[in-house]
Specification:
The chain has 332 residues and is α/β, with parallel strands linked by helices. Helix content is 49%, strand content 14%. It folds into 2 domains: 2-136 and 151-213, Spore Coat Polysaccharide Biosynthesis Protein SpsA, Chain A (Alpha-Beta Complex), CATH 3.90.550; 219-320, no CATH class. The chain is built from 14 helices and 8 strands. Strands 3-2-1-4-7-6-8-5 form an 8-stranded mixed beta sheet. The radius of gyration is 21 Å and the shape is globular.
Length: 332
């Protein structure tokens, strides 16, 4: 029996959890609690802080003083740079990555590391994510929840993992050149995830490794978020809206790209299912928000995409060169 126990212990992998942050004093206590409540705690926690000035850094350094597993480094730069720094600093080959602003289920670490231990040929494990229902406190947020039907990831072949819930080996990270750092803010994990899929690394899926991501409350905050996503995707030249393609072919005037992208988002995403879910809850106010939210999301995404593409042509060629089929994915 003792021999069997020792064999199990030898098969258990050590792993590092990495993340980045900037002014996360509001979410850090919950995130720290989630980590400490894990059924399988990380052997190392590497956090790169972009010189927070709201008390986040002080709390992190205090945590590091109390827990030898915690490593904190301050470094200027966007999230992609911070995550690359964290992974380079990590002591272990297996890396678990998430964002500080999310809520983690108690088995998140355990479920992400388990596939590596069960099959040593696994190189990437994609975790799960969905909207945090606890963060939905407005009609606009409820409208999005009805549209996304909870927002849970659809894990399976061709699924593109993101930084929010993923694990991979440092070998994968090195071979892919780390996360791209020439993007302004968004889309670095989308590019990196597409590289993983294109390269054909052996990927396993961990549907129980759930993270819950907070949503905005005001409709303008959703539109601002989509503008940022559009700008990042435009810089990387991924998730290309069909209206942008038509513009590039000289078929559509540039000024119509946002409006057509908004109309397409409205007609593709505003399904009877979303209306049914809202009506079933007798949520008539959210019903009124549905079309405005979706059209505005698409409009702002298209506007951001145009701006991002212009910057990307000049400053993001290294990122764009990473993908063989960067511009072939149409999602809007």
């Amino acid at each position: 029996m003792a021999g069997e126990t020792r064999l199990i212990q030898l098969d258990m992998l050590k792993f590092s959890l990495v993340t980045t942050c900037r002014n996360e004093i509001g979410s850090l206590p919950q995130w720290k609690g989630n980590i400490l409540d894990q059924t399988r705690r990380p052997d190392e926690i590497v956090i790169v802080d972009a010189f927070s000035d709201d008390g986040t850094a002080e709390m992190l350094f205090e945590w590091a003083d109390q827990d030898e597993r915690v490593v904190v480094k301050q470094e200027n730069g966007a999230a992609a740079h911070g995550r690359n720094v964290a992974i380079a600093m990590a002591s272990y080959e297996h890396i678990l990555s998430t964002d500080m602003g999310v809520r983690l289920c108690s088995v998140w670490c355990e479920e992400l590391i388990k596939p590596f231990e069960q099959d040593r040929s696994v190189e990437v494990v994609a975790g799960n994510t969905q909207i945090d229902k606890n963060s939905i406190k407005s009609a606009a947020a409820r409208a999005e929840y009805y549209i996304e039907d909870g927002g849970e990831s659809n894990l399976g072949p061709d699924f593109v993992p993101g930084n929010r819930s993923i694990a991979y080996t440092r070998k994968v990270w090195r071979e892919l050149g780390g996360l791209p750092e020439d993007l302004t803010f968004y889309a670095d994990d989308s590019v990196f995830g597409r590289q993983i899929v294109e390269a054909g690394y052996k990927m396993a899926y961990a549907p129980r490794a759930m993270t819950y991501w907070r949503r905005p409350q005001k409709i303008r905050e959703f539109w601002k978020e989509q503008f940022g996503y559009g700008r990042g995707d435009g810089e990387a030249l991924i998730k290309t809206p069909i209206a942008f393609r038509l513009y590039k072919r000289g078929i559509l005037p540039r000024f119509l790209v946002p409006a057509l992208t908004g109309f397409r988002r409205l007609t593709r995403s505003l399904t009877f299912g979303a209306l049914y879910r809202a009506i079933r809850k007798l949520d008539l106010v959210a019903c009124l928000y549905l079309p405005a939210l979706q059209f505005g999301n698409g409009y702002c995404f298209g506007k951001g995409y145009l701006i991002g593409d212009k910057r990307g042509e000049k400053h993001c060629q290294e990122c764009r060169s990473r993908l063989k089929v960067a511009a072939q994915s149409i999602t809007n």
